[in-house]
Design brief:
The complex is a heterodimer of chains A (82) and B (444). Helices cover 55% and strands 0% of the residues of chain A. Chain A has 82 residues and is mainly alpha-helical. In chain A, α1 packs across α2 (39-53). The longest helix of chain A is centred in the N-terminal third of the chain and has 15 residues, at 2-16. Chain B has 444 residues and is α/β, with parallel strands linked by helices. In chain B, 27% of the residues lie in helices and 30% in strands. Chain B has twelve helices and 25 strands. Chain B has helices at residues 4-10, 28-41, 57-68, 83-92, 142-145, 153-156, 170-181, 195-205, 214-222, 243-252, 358-366, 400-415; strands at 17-20, 25-27, 49-54, 73-76, 97-102, 105-110, 123-127, 137-141, 160-163, 185-188, 209-212, 233-236, 257-264, 268-273, 280-281, 293-298, 301-306, 312-315, 326-335, 338-344, 349-351, 354-356, 371-381, 385-394, 426-429. In chain B, the strands form five sheets. Chain B has an eight-stranded mixed β-sheet, sandwiched between helices. In chain B, a hairpin with a 2-residue loop joins β16 and β17. The radius of gyration of chain B is 23 Å and the shape is globular. The two termini of chain B are 42 Å apart. The chains are: A mainly alpha (82), B alpha/beta (444). The A-B interface holds A 16-18, 39-40, 42-44, 46-48, 51, 56, 58-59 and B 351-352, 379-384, 387, 411, 415, 420-421, 425-426.
Chain lengths: 82, 444
């Protein structure tokens, strides 16, 4: 479920920042920085997810974790959404 | 030494309407009798320092001439000041009495022992709203406050001013003083009234001069009956008057002159712009045609030196340079011999190290034909520190799926005008955008 929502918002963030890429699926090992989403797009993705889930896991973390793969990113949201 | 009320009012025909609202009116003759009666009944206030506070604009306009005709200092105390600020202001201004008006009843309370009887020139004390920090308290001589008001009692008979600012704010006081200096009538609306009702009342009473913020004017343009307002003179102030709102007003009120005015509580009235264009001519900068003020731009900020500013600053600090220029905190940009206002220096949003000025984005959003009004603000974001968010009042009522489409359209629209980090990341549709008691968009 979480993965599906993140993928949907991921594509919206790509579109909003004017990127051509759209994904039907993203591999867990995919490097985030290589997906086409830039830092503004990434910031927008986090904002979209916060709007949807009422959750910003990055503000809840005791120690900041910066995910480098799509799998890590999804994992963070799954962990904090419990 | 001028006493505004005793001197000015004598020259005004007594049957002219001084103030009116939906329910009643008071003539200049009636207010003069009330002044005389008040003097007899309240000798303890003569020459004293008084704060005057009321939750009704009409009651305030009814009691102001009475109190101000006897006191030395008069502090037009806004409703919303915090207790500790009130205490500090009273101490700094040597306030001895507080006159409270509620539901047309007057209560006079002594708050401190008499400091000294003062016979020097009367001082008028105004407070800033303090939305961006501690409110400032400034003092004006009445002559300084009235430097730009016209005082033609014959022509004044033709003018009926509408008041839609609080009377105890600089902008409201300017409208009030302009009305009474020429013996014109003032039609008063209250801050909690429905705008459709205000427009209907103003139409009914024949209001033909109206001064308000661009935020207020955008809402007026939305009301169904605004076409019937018999306006001859429209003034905009307090916020940036962009080209869209100027054009809309010109188109909507063909018989009216549309003027935008640059003023602040601290620096007073700066200048007016009458050419229906946003911004102001570059030749206003420096030793310009504007005889009583001087302007300069330093690091994109507008600085002003004026001889009609506040006479004393009793509380707060101003950023004043060695030559006596005050930093207005307004960011400006010069394009082809024209100076444009971009926004407030204190309100900038930092998106990943890039400076974004909310008013610049609002101006783009407001220029979209289906946007009535917008508010742009920064929202905390873990990736870039802040992201640009926007609230939009749409011209049409939108269903959920239409909102989605319009959101996308607005983002595309912004992208064509702005670099990517300035484009609102999140857009929300709202029914209205809150304004404060000075008619400006509330910014936290």
């Amino acid at each position: 479920m979480m993965r599906k929502l993140i993928l949907e918002k991921f594509n919206e963030a790509l579109e909003q920042t004017g990127k051509a890429e759209q994904y039907e699926n993203i591999d867990d090992n995919a490097i985030l920085l290589e997906t086409g989403l830039d830092s503004l797009g990434f910031a927008i993705l986090v904002a979209f997810l916060e709007e949807e889930l009422d959750l910003d896991p990055f503000q809840l973390m005791d120690e900041p974790v910066y995910p480098s793969t799509f799998g890590e990113f999804v994992n963070i949201y799954e962990r904090f959404n419990d | 030494m001028i006493n505004l009320f005793t001197d000015t009012f004598n020259a005004i025909p007594s049957d002219r309407v001084y103030i009116q609202n939906r329910y009643r009116g008071i003539t200049y003759g009636e207010i003069q009798s009330s002044i005389a009666k008040f003097k007899d009944q309240n000798p303890e206030l003569i020459g004293r320092n008084c704060a005057l506070v009321s939750n009704s604009r009409f009651d305030l306009a009814t009691s102001l001439p009475l109190v101000a005709s006897v006191t030395h200092k008069i502090f037009l105390q806004p409703q919303c000041l915090k207790e500790d600020v009130i205490e500090e202001f009273y101490a700094k201004a040597d306030i001895e009495y507080v006159v409270k008006i509620s539901d047309a009843d007057m209560e006079i309370v002594k708050v401190s022992d008499v400091v000294s009887l003062n016979k020097s020139e009367q001082e008028w004390l105004l407070s800033t709203s303090g939305t961006t920090g501690t409110p400032k308290l400034v003092s004006y001589y009445i002559a300084s406050l009235m430097k730009t008001t016209k005082k033609d009692v014959v022509k004044g008979a033709n003018f009926n001013w509408g008041l839609c600012y609080d009377l105890n704010r600089f902008a409201g006081m300017q409208v009030y003083l302009q009305a009474i200096a020429s013996g014109s009538s003032l039609t008063i609306s209250e801050s909690d009234e429905d705008l459709n009702l205000i427009v209907a009342d103003f139409t009914d009473k024949g209001v033909n001069c109206l001064s308000a913020t661009p935020s207020f004017w955008r809402k007026v343009l939305m009301t169904k009956n605004s076409n019937s307002l018999p306006l001859k003179r429209i003034t905009l102030g307090g916020e940036i008057a962009d080209q869209t709102v100027l054009n809309s007003l010109k188109k909507h009120f063909v018989d009216a002159n549309v003027i935008h005015i640059y003023a602040s509580t601290e620096a007073g009235v700066g200048f007016t712009v009458k050419d229906y264009k946003a911004g102001f001519p570059y030749d206003y900068i420096g030793m310009s045609k504007l005889s009583s003020i001087e302007l300069k731009i330093v690091d994109d900020l507008l600085w002003i030196k004026s001889n009609r500013g506040a006479d004393t600053l009793l509380n707060g600090a101003l950023d004043v340079d060695i030559d006596g220029f005050i930093n207005t905190g307004d960011i400006v940009e010069v394009i082809n011999d024209r100076v444009f206002f971009v926004g407030r220096d204190s309100g900038t949003i930092n998106v990943g190290g890039n400076k974004v000025i909310p008013e610049e984005i609002e101006s783009v959003l407001n220029s979209h034909p289906d946007v009535v009004q917008s508010k742009v603000f920064g929202k905390k974001n873990p990736v870039l520190g802040m992201l640009v968010n926007a609230e939009i009042v749409s011209k049409k009522t939108l269903a959920k799926d239409e909102e989605k489409v319009f959101k996308k359209e607005l983002i595309m629209f912004c992208k064509s005008e702005l670099v990517s980090f300035k484009v609102p990341a999140m857009i929300k549709f709202v029914d209205n955008i809150a304004v404060n008691e000075s008619g400006k968009i509330v910014r936290k």
